[in-house]
Amino acid sequence: MSTTSDSAVRAYINVHREEFLDDLAAWLRIPSVSADPERAADVRRSAEWLAGRLTATGFPTAEIWETDGAPAVFAEWSSGDPTAPTVLVYGHHDVQPAAREDGWHTDPFEPQTVDGKLYARGAADDKGQVFFHTLGVRAHLAATGRTAPAVNLKLLIEGEEESGSPNFPALITKHADRLACDAVIVSDTGMWSKDTPTVCTGMRGLTDCQIDLYGPDQDIHSGSFGGAVPNPATEAARLAAALHDDERRVAIPGFYDGIVELTDRERELFAELPFDEAGWLRTAHSHAALGEAGHSTLERIWARPTAEVNGIGGGYQGPGGKTIVPSAAQLKLSFRLVAGQDAAAVQQSVRDWVAARLPDGIRHEITFWGATRPCLT
Amino acid sequence: MSTTSDSAVRAYINVHREEFLDDLAAWLRIPSVSADPERAADVRRSAEWLAGRLTATGFPTAEIWETDGAPAVFAEWSSGDPTAPTVLVYGHHDVQPAAREDGWHTDPFEPQTVDGKLYARGAADDKGQVFFHTLGVRAHLAATGRTAPAVNLKLLIEGEEESGSPNFPALITKHADRLACDAVIVSDTGMWSKDTPTVCTGMRGLTDCQIDLYGPDQDIHSGSFGGAVPNPATEAARLAAALHDDERRVAIPGFYDGIVELTDRERELFAELPFDEAGWLRTAHSHAALGEAGHSTLERIWARPTAEVNGIGGGYQGPGGKTIVPSAAQLKLSFRLVAGQDAAAVQQSVRDWVAARLPDGIRHEITFWGATRPCLT
To answer: Do B325 and A311 touch (CB under 8 A)?
Structure first.
């Protein structure tokens, strides 16, 4: 029997399997729900549990990093090799709220093993993944006989991801020096299936906005004035409708400029996956696939930029009819971005496009809420 | 001094001016607000006052006609000439609610004369017009020496116009025989100016509807599924945007089929009116004119059929952003119709047009609320 590095890692894991799972279960029992102010002490206990476990694993540095909200955990383990790259693992130790009423068959904070699967809130998002990164280090050291990892290893495990990471930008800005790295690994992404190893090589960015349109200074009678003055609800609809062409490509000039297209090999690899579109539509609660022409569903959701109407509203929306030309309407749009797109440039394209399309008599305002950069390995 | 029929009428009016205005003021003091259940007795008192006044004027027949709501008044005066035509005057004796807080400088139900103008709720809509029809009969008889009008005269003055005339169709169906006539005069329309006699020769019809669109069975995440499934808010917008072409003509196939176009002479007459578009825009609380290409504002609001978005809604409309693909959206549309258009045919055109434009995966329902026929003399 050969003892490759890979098989040595597997052997170590098999020997320590129960111990690893018991450790993870101890962490999963801490209800670190960042959204619930009453769980703040539990979120802190979760951070302290993790820092203690990282120290026990051998990390020379394991610190609680305070934020204006819930604490994060930072750990560092130098390889000792001045030429070694530095890898930063990102994860989060907080979880979504969970109640039996949500459909749990058992207490979501009391881990249960059923048919060889471990069920608990956070088991797959994201305590499980974070914990297996630390176990991976232990197995790597045990299998190789090393006393330090082959790369300079850093972990940054935040406590507010499930609440939208409100204090995360300030945290990484404050500690930018200590977070310097050559690569970031994020294991808070999807898994294709338990039989298919999954490496997520890119994450789309996001920018979203609200467009407010103003026409008449008040709602006016559509019999007296309709058909002779601009209607902001009509103009909001015309904007939303013009977002995509008849091939469902985003029709904002410049939107696709500079994007990194999928390679032929990537498209082949996507196409080789055993994708069950009917099953996917069930998870989407949807009844048909529809999107950018010339691309598969997987390409559309993983690797193509999109424009989506998240909300539209204007005029009378109560029961029955009301024959008005409304005074105002609004549109909420979000744009998923891929590598090569710059959020600020996309925002400017949207602003230019809106301004160019509206008729005289319609005043508008655009508010962008934020921008998340796309990334691609 | 010549005594033409016209000048004799004027002479009679001048002599009786104060008496006429006192009579009208007495009626205007009755707060016949049909929308307010607490005013039901006042609406009835208004009907009784009018019936009494019509009898005093000489109408051989003046009846209160009951409905399931507020009472109407019917009066009849035969000319005695078997070849005379029969003219039916339609009007209403109910008024809109009025409160000092709405901007009235004085009690809206206590008539005030300022700069030669009489101010009170109902003075111009529609008690004033109805009352002057009856005064016209008195002047006509006095000036000509006749004892009966030159035409067979009928009046139908309803009590629920300001509440949408919910019982009026049943009323005229029930009394169709007694309402038989050669012409209907409606003086509940606009007046160009106090110096320009106004005859309204047509009234547009109306049909309005709600279109409900359903996509995913629940709101879904736009990052996970957006760009790959149909979005009902996008489809509602695409429908609303497709209502008009780039020339702002209604783009529903068949919509204009069979309509009675304005004659060249009518367009000339419209164009000769001293129309102050800037002033009109102020009354429309609007900042630009916009509508069907090739037609003036007056043609658009008086004589052209229109399609208007009265309301649109779907997805998230609260503060900030929410990155969803919404599960449903709705659209409220109204269509003004002109002579030659049949409401049922227009409804069918809308149904066909909607069904043909929606992609797979979007289910829809259309509800039409009603239809008012257009008319043209």
So the answer is: no
| CA B199 – CA A13 distance, rounded (Å) | 94
User: Cα dihedral sign for B343, B344, B345, B347?
Assistant: positive
Chain A residues with CB under 8 Å of B236 CB are 237, 312
Rounded to whole angstroms, how far apart are CA atoms B317 and B315? Answer: 6
Residue A126 identity (one-letter amino acid): D
| B369/A224 CB distance under 8 A | no
Of B206, B218, B231, the CB nearest to A285: B218
CB contact under 8 A, A237 and B309: yes
Distance from CA of A135 to the nearest CA of B (A): 30
Which residue of A lies nearest to B362 if distances are taken between CA atoms? A287
In a 3-state reduction of DSSP, which class is residue B300? helix
Of B226, B300, B311, the CB nearest to A227: B300
Residue with tokens 């790959």: B228
Same fold, B5-186 and B203-376: no
Q: Please give the interface size between A and B, counted as residue pairs whose CB atoms are below 8 Å apart.
A: 276
DSSP-based helix, strand, coil % in chain B, nearest 5: 35, 25, 45
Which of A229, A238, A240 faces B288 most closely, judged by CB atoms? A229
What whole-number distance in Å separates Cα of residue B154 and Cα of residue B133?
11
Q: Which of B292, B308, B363 to mutate to test the interface with A (most CBs of A within 10 A)?
A: B308
Top-tier CATH class for B203-376: alpha beta
Interface contact B310-A312, CB threshold 8 A: no
B359 and A322: CB-CB below 8 Å?
Answer: no
Rounded to whole angstroms, the Cα distance separating A226 from B342 reads 20
Find, in chain B, the residue whose alpha carbon is nearest to that of A363.
B287
Phi/psi for A160 (5° steps) reads -135, 20
Measure Cα distances from A52 to A61, A63, A74, A119, A132 in Å.
10, 9, 11, 24, 16
Strand partners for A86: A152
Tell me if B301 and A243 make a contact (CB, 8 A cut-off): no
Interface contact flag, B234 A226, Cβ < 8 Å: no
- Range A204-376 has CATH code 3.40.50.2300: no
Residue A230, min C-alpha distance to chain B (Å): 5
- B38: left (phi > 0), else alpha (psi -120 to 50), else beta? alpha
pLDDT per residue rounded down to tens, chain A (377 residues):
345 667 888 888 889 999 999 999 999 999 999 989 999 999 999 999 999 999 999 999 999 999 999 999 999 999 999 999 999 999 999 999 888 888 898 999 999 999 988 999 999 999 999 999 988 898 999 889 999 999 999 999 999 998 878 899 999 999 999 999 999 999 888 888 878 888 888 889 999 999 999 999 999 999 999 999 999 999 999 999 999 999 999 999 999 999 999 999 999 999 999 999 999 999 999 999 999 999 999 999 999 999 999 999 999 999 988 999 999 999 999 999 999 999 999 999 999 999 999 999 999 999 998 788 898 88
DSSP letter for each residue of A286-336: -S----STTS-HHHHHHTS-EEEEEEEEEE--SSS---EE-SEEEEEEEEE
Instruction: Say yes or no for a CB contact (<8 Å) between A369 and B208.
Output: no
DSSP string, B225-278: TTTSS--HHHHHHHHHHHTB-TT--B-STTTTTT--PPPHHHHHHHHHS---HH
Give the tens place of pLDDT for each residue, B84-140: 999 999 999 999 988 888 789 899 999 999 998 899 999 999 999 999 998 889 899
Residue range B5-186 forms a domain whose CATH class is alpha beta
B chain contacts of residue A237, beta-carbon cutoff 8 Å? 236-241, 309, 312
- What does the domain layout of chain B look like in residue ranges? 5-186, 203-376
What residue of A is the nearest CA neighbor of B277? A228
Kindly calculate the radius of gyration of chain A based on its CA atoms and give it in whole angstroms: 25
